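Bumping with the actual sequence this time:
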Amino acid sequence: HVQLVESGGGSVQAGGSLRLSCAASGFSARSRCMGWFRQAPGKAREGIAGIRRDGDEHYAGSVKGRFTISQDNAKNIIYLQMSSPTPDDAGMYYCAAREPWQTEYNYWGQGTQVTVS
């Protein structure tokens, strides 16, 4: 049973930092491409960070240089380190997984809410 569970959301001050976690179960995250997405109220969900099986990372321009995706293979957890967030970074954050040969993410977590004040 594949499951992704996000945690670590909450309220953060602008310019502060916050780390989100995504615990994967039912599969090995290292065998998939993992991503973080977010959805602000009234806006479409957007991909903001991803990591491939070879460890290659990619970021949306809006977070590049401020957010970092990482993976602890021993714990099967994917992290999103948020640094210097702004109010524009507020929203529901989702972790997702896909097979390397797919373009669409087919496993999703329930999300964790982030507010920036």
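The tokens above came from a reply further down the thread. The chain has a mean pLDDT of 96.
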